């Protein structure tokens, strides 16, 4: 590594042991299994590039010296996407943070731009991001497209993998002489949601949506089945323009802090909603039709010191629970099309409070469905996998959050094949985030 430091002289290098440990972590500790496997894993050297040319210089040095190379965005992933399994160099993209341009319906960003900054800048021109994770304030554009899959906005705009959700990626290859490759169309799949195993994403072009004033709403229900049917009906209501439709079974709301008294009534299941202004009356009427009532209705605002409603949903739900109870973990599951509500209700009745139901309603493969990030009272690995087996009998499939392997996340086979082929071309020595793509062989 000493020789590599000499080759990279003039770049911002970090090798303090504390910094190496801290910056080599993400939120893998949500999983007790990953915590055992990944604690102590760290890079040997962190490089903070400021330009794409500096990224290429690091890639060339690593290729020539056969040194593993990983990439760090906001480090908000949940299953060790960026944790270096074999040491080596970690590229911290925090300084590659320029918005390159925003024009009608599109924006081009360097990979290190935080999603909050990208969204705020787009709004100044009358646009906004179509979707973002619950970690919007910390996550980067590059980290999101490399490690994310959906998020707030998916109830309207579907998945990141859907055609049109990402317009272009610019990547640097890891070769003796690195290339700068622009990916568009189907080729975007070569690097999208690939954990940085196939190329170093340095620029991202995203579609934008017209900016709306949003209304945050909470609807409460005594009966879980009513809440589930309401969430599905809400997502299917074409007259309501939604950004968020999140169902949280009691006792999950007990873990939440920061909302006014009465918003999360004792013993009741809640649905957290973001609807475009003007749609709040329609939401209220639909909730009443399903036996619920509105406990919160307020304009969405994004300011420091204030917790927006989306930070109680998606992956933040597990984080909110872990702040209170260190003995919980979570699952990530996908529900059967067209029978998702029946499966959701059946799973809630099967497990009760051991597996606290949390469903995110969204567009999947052209129809309204839901995926779930259930919060589980963890007792043992054996019991966790038994719960998974029982969910499978209901048609509920696992997207394994207790594995750092790319193929364990439910990737579609065509995309996986595309990524494997591109990795052989762009990373011939297998140095990019090694150990994360199980099908790779040198």
Describe the structure in your own words:
With 442 residues, the chain is of the alpha+beta class. Among the domains are: 95-210, Uridine Diphospho-n-acetylenolpyruvylglucosamine Reductase, domain 3 (2-Layer Sandwich), CATH 3.30.465; 214-299 and 333-398, no CATH class. The protein has helices at 2-7, 17-23, 32-38, 52-65, 115-123, 141-147, 154-157, 224-235, 280-289, 315-324, 340-351, 381-392, 413-426, and strands at 12-14, 45-48, 69-72, 89-92, 99-103, 106-110, 127-129, 168-172, 180-184, 200-210, 214-221, 242-248, 269-276, 293-299, 328-330, 333-334, 355-356, 358-364, 367-372, 375-377, 397-398. The strands form four sheets. An eight-stranded antiparallel sheet has the order 14-11-13-12-18-19-16-21. A hairpin with a 2-residue loop joins β18 (358-364) and β19 (367-372). The model has no long low-confidence stretch (mean pLDDT 96).
Using the alpha-carbon principal axes, give the shape.
Answer: globular
Low-confidence stretches: none
Question: Level of helix content?
Answer: 25-40%
Summed up, the helix count is 13
Compile the SSE list and pairings.
Layout: H1 2-7, E1 12-14, H2 17-23, H3 32-38, E2 45-48, H4 52-65, E3 69-72, E4 89-92, E5 99-103, E6 106-110, H5 115-123, E7 127-129, H6 141-147, H7 154-157, E8 168-172, E9 180-184, E10 200-210, E11 214-221, H8 224-235, E12 242-248, E13 269-276, H9 280-289, E14 293-299, H10 315-324, E15 328-330, E16 333-334, H11 340-351, E17 355-356, E18 358-364, E19 367-372, E20 375-377, H12 381-392, E21 397-398, H13 413-426
Parallel strand pairs: 2-4, 3-4
Antiparallel strand pairs: 1-2, 5-6, 6-10, 7-10, 8-9, 8-10, 11-13, 11-14, 12-13, 12-18, 15-20, 16-19, 16-21, 17-20, 18-19
């Amino acid at each position: 590594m000493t020789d590599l430091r000499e080759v990279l002289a003039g770049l911002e290098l970090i090798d303090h042991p504390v910094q190496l440990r801290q910056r080599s972590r993400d939120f893998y500790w949500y999983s007790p299994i990953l915590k055992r496997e990944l604690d102590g894993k760290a890079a040997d050297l962190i490089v903070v590039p400021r330009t794409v040319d500096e990224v290429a210089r690091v890639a060339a040095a690593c290729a020539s010296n056969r040194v593993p190379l990983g990439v760090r965005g906001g480090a908000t992933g949940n299953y060790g996407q960026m944790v270096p399994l074999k040491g080596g160099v970690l590229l911290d993209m925090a300084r590659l943070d320029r918005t390159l341009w925003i024009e009608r319906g599109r924006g081009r960003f360097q990979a290190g731009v935080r999603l909050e900054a990208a969204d705020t800048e787009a709004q100044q021109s009358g646009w906004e991001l179509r979707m973002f994770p619950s970690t919007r304030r910390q996550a980067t554009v590059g980290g999101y497209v490399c490690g994310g899959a959906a998020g707030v906005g998916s109830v309207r705009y579907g998945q990141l993998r859907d055609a049109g959700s990402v317009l272009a990626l610019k990547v640097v290859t890891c070769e003796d002489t690195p290339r700068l490759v622009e990916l568009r169309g189907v080729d975007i799949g070569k690097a999208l949601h690939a954990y940085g195993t196939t190329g170093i994403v340095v620029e991202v072009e995203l579609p934008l949506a017209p900016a709306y004033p949003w209304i945050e709403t909470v609807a409460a229900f005594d009966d879980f089945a009513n809440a589930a049917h309401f969430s599905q009906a809400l997502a299917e209501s074409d007259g309501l323009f939604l950004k968020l439709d999140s169902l949280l079974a009691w006792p999950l709301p007990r873990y939440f802090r920061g909302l006014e008294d009465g918003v999360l009534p004792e013993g009741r299941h809640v649905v957290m909603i973001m609807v475009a202004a003007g749609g709040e009356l329609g939401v209220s009427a639909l909730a009443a039709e399903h036996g619920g009532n509105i406990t919160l209705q307020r304009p969405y605002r994004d300011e420091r010191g204030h917790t927006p409603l989306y930070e109680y949903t998606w992956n933040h739900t597990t984080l909110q629970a872990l702040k209170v109870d260190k003995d919980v973990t979570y699952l990530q599951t996908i529900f059967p099309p067209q029978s998702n509500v029946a499966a959701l209700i059946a799973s809630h009745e099967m497990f009760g409070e051991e597996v606290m139901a949390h469903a995110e309603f969204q567009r999947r493969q052209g129809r309204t469905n839901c995926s779930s990030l259930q919060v589980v009272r963890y007792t043992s690995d054996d019991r966790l996998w038994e719960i998974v087996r029982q969910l499978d009998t209901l048609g509920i499939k696992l997207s394994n959050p207790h594995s750092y392997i790319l193929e364990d996340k439910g990737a579609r086979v065509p995309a996986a094949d595309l990524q494997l082929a591109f990795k052989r071309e762009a990373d011939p020595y297998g140095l990019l985030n090694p150990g994360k793509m199980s099908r790779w062989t040198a």
